[in-house]
Structures are given as structure tokens and as C-alpha cells.
Write a structure and sequence with these properties.
With about 350 residues, the protein is an alpha/beta fold. About 55% of the residues lie in helices and about 10% in strands.
């Protein structure tokens, strides 16, 4: 049997529960009370098609044998941390969570996150190494799902800086590597898309700054400490109202569209599944009312951006964009018809 010591989460059994109870959950509860005005986990609801108690029972049943929670990605740490906290609190589900090795800048950080049920997504190397790492990760995730474990993974590599959350087909290809039938592999993963909604993004001004830096220099690379600053800002920054909305397993959609999906090529199936994940995440958005106070908030965020050659018009446009795109995607999802 192949081992996964280079990427696997540490298996610490009951000790994980003790650590959660004594350290992790009190800290997350502190952040919930101090850094959000409200937080809730919903099964369907909101402005989605899944409104009834029967819909909620269906989603709870989807979670019973473990699921792959594929989400939009806004915050490096808190996206997964609060999802894990909420699932554990409400349904006693503790998902394994993916974390990029680029974030493991120190040995103690790697030890800690693996201890907290994080597995490592290795992103280093040339094309051959990338392919080998993807195969290794895919086999590990499929092994966990074969044992009924739940998984968290973002729908794309890196955060969507502009708020335009779109599933990367490469993520789906990685998850189904080594499988003869793509749709069968997706079914075994039991993907339940989750929409993560923050009223305010503490890292919005840092993201806008990064977008100008990349615009001005396409070869720009993050300096040492940039990710650590984003992690700290995301953890301790105010997020306002927070909503995590779990949508049904893709298996229901696949059952309803079985004949049409089976006529497609594998690449067409990948694209169709990616679009359905996008739809379920977009339709699950919580759309927040924005008034004059929000414009003042954006002005304050603009002032916080420190950089040479500061293009205030561009930066303000990017700040608006990252809050506007979810609303536009939600509206488009409501108008969607067919595959």
C-alpha cells in the first residue's frame, strides 16, 4: 500500500478532539464573536432553489457518507477553518483540508496544520514534477473518500482576487486522475459545492494592491512575508456578516442529466461539471445591500494601500469589482437554464 507521508494530514485520533476542544474551537469562537457581526451555516436557503425542509434533509443525507466540499476561495486560512468549525459544530463532520506548500514557511507551521487535519498540496517543480505531485494528491484524496472521509478543497488554485469565482477544470482533472470514467469518479467524490460569503473582505486592499503590482509588472513575484501578512489580516480583520451555504451533491444533477452527459467527450464533461459547480456556488451567494456607508468604507480601504506609483482610480475600480462580481454572477445564475 502506498504511503502519503509527504502530504498527508497527521492521524492523531482522539488527541485531535481534545485539541479542538481546548485550543482550536475557543480561538475560532473568539474570532466569530469579535470579528464578525453574525455567522451561520445554511443548507440551501437564501436565494437558491433549495428552500424546503425536504431539500435540507436531502443535503443532510448527502453529507452522511462524507463529501468533497468544493468552495470559492477568498481567505487563505478562514475559508477552511470556519467551514470545519461549523460542520463539526452542527454535524460532527471534520473535513480534511488542502493547504498549499507555499504557505508552509516554517517547520512548526507545517506540523501544526497537518496536526489540524490539513493535507499538503505541493505546487513546486517543472511540468513532470507538477504532474507527479497531482497524481499523488489525487490518489490520496480518492483514498480518503474511499474510507468515507470528508474533504475541503478550493475550486481553484489561489484566491479569486477580483471576486469572480470560477472553477478551474484542472482541479477536476486532478481529482479524477487514474479513473477510467470521469463521471463515475465525480460521483464517488460526492462533491457538495459550498458558497462562502463575507460581507467585508479584510484583505480587499491588499488584493487591490497586488492587482496593480501585477498590472505594472507582469513578472512581479510575491516577496517573502506577503502570504503571512495576508493570513494575519484575514484572521484578525473584521468580516461583518458571514454565511456558509452548502448546496446539494452534484450527483443529483448528474442523475437528472445522465443521458446528455454520457453523450459528451471527457473534456466536455469536465467543462459541464465545472459550470455546474460555479452555478451552485453563485446561486448560493448572500448578496449584501450596499449603501453610501459602503462607499465611505471603500475610500478608507483605498487610503490603507501603500505603494509607489499609486493609481487611485485603478485601485478603486478593483475594490468595487471584487464586491460587484459576486452580485453579477448571482444574477446570471438565477437566469441560467439547462446545462
Amino acid at each position: 500500500m502506498e504511503t502519503y507521508k509527504d502530504i498527508e494530514a497527521y492521524r492523531v485520533g482522539p488527541l485531535l478532539g481534545v485539541t479542538d476542544f481546548l485550543f482550536v474551537f475557543p480561538f475560532l469562537e473568539y474570532l466569530r464573536r469579535r470579528k464578525t457581526s453574525s455567522m451561520r451555516l445554511e443548507l440551501g436557503g437564501g436565494d437558491t432553489p433549495w428552500q424546503s425542509e425536504a431539500d435540507r434533509r436531502m443535503i443532510r443525507e448527502d453529507l452522511r457518507g462524507g463529501a468533497t466540499f468544493l468552495t470559492n476561495h477568498r481567505d487563505i486560512i478562514m475559508d477552511a477553518a470556519w467551514l470545519s468549525f461549523l460542520l463539526r459544530t452542527h454535524y460532527w463532520i471534520r473535513p480534511y483540508m488542502g493547504i498549499g506548500n507555499n504557505l508552509l514557511s516554517k517547520r512548526w507551521i507545517e506540523w501544526l496544520v497537518r496536526y489540524l487535519r490539513c493535507y499538503v498540496v505541493v505546487r513546486d517543480g517543472g511540468p513532470k514534477e507538477v504532474m507527479k505531485n497531482a497524481q499523488h494528491l489525487s490518489a490520496y484524496i480518492q483514498m480518503l473518500r474511499g474510507k468515507g472521509k470528508s474533504i475541503w478543497l478550493a475550486q481553484r488554485e489561489g484566491r479569486a482576487k477580483d471576486g469572480n469565482d470560477l472553477t478551474q477544470p484542472a482541479v477536476l482533472k486532478m481529482l479524477t486522475m487514474g479513473s477510467g470514467d470521469f463521471l463515475d469518479a465525480i460521483r464517488k467524490l460526492n462533491i457538495c459545492p459550498v458558497s462562502i460569503n463575507y460581507e467585508f473582505d479584510p484583505c480587499d486592499y491588499l488584493k487591490a494592491r497586488e492587482m496593480q503590482l501585477r498590472r505594472d509588472d507582469p513578472q512581479w513575484k510575491k516577496p517573502k512575508g506577503e502570504d503571512e501578512l495576508s493570513m494575519k489580516t484575514g484572521i484578525f480583520g473584521d468580516k461583518g456578516r458571514v454565511v456558509y451555504r452548502v448546496t446539494p451533491s452534484l450527483n443529483h444533477w448528474m442523475d437528472a442529466n445522465k443521458e446528455e452527459l454520457e453523450k459528451m467527450t471527457r473534456n466536455e464533461q469536465v467543462q459541464a461539471v465545472a459550470k455546474q459547480i460555479d452555478y451552485q456556488i453563485h446561486i448560493g451567494y448572500e448578496t449584501y445591500e450596499r449603501g453610501e456607508a459602503f462607499e465611505q468604507y471603500l475610500q478608507e480601504r483605498l487610503v490603507m494601500i501603500e505603494m509607489a506609483n499609486k493609481d487611485e482610480a485603478y485601485l478603486m475600480d478593483k475594490l468595487h469589482e471584487m464586491y460587484r462580481n459576486p452580485v453579477l454572477n448571482h444574477q446570471a445564475a438565477k437566469e441560467k437554464k439547462g446545462l
